[in-house]
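Example (one chain per record):
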Amino acid sequence: MNRPSTSERVPVTPRGQRTRQKLLKAAEAVFGDKGYERASIADLTRKASVALGTFYVYFPDKQSIFVEVVDELGARLRRLIAESTAACTTRLEVEREGLRAFFQFVRQHPNLYRVVRQAEFVDADCYRRYYDRFAKGYVRGLQQAMEAGEVRRMDPEALAYCLMGIGDFLGMRWVLWEEDMGLERVLDTAMTLLSHGLPPDAGAARTHLQAVPPPKAAAKPSKPSPPKSKPSPRRPSRGPRS
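Predicted structure:
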């Protein structure tokens, strides 16, 4: 299902839609490789194999296509995760398959991290929107799991961002930096952590962090008393002078 575009110049013909997608795909690659500041519109059209003037049929400027790339990546990622987790029957299954889908997306879109992080400086609203939209769906799923008794009750938004952070860093380390074919091991580790932190527990009170009183400060050694001065030996009294 096509999502609403942030661009006002949405083509209505299949050919126009294909050309627009070619530009977006080229922009993802160029912004990832060269960075937003160094990339030019000519670079984008050259990569997309379209005329320079064609760009302006679909986008008014470089920033507008950058924002659209970020929004499009976010929408496609959310859609992939939703499709990949649709058949899951438990929240822990959703977490595992969602992570797997995220790793798959990073593998297919290695410029995802670089493009999204540039958005913080190119368009701060776009940067925040990327995470807000992802978190919104995450929060909704966690709230449903809490209502069903699968996840202990806690702040769902804070929990969503914790889980998003786990996926973000695992994908960066084991897919982007150095692809590791043993991703099941990484998934197993993450799920071991989540299986001890998410489900409700009859002894939950024991698992809550309890305030630990600060360690008592070590008593300062008392300063040694100054040694008592020894009385100077008394001189023997002399007899009267002659």
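Caption: Residues 62-85 form the longest helix (24 residues).
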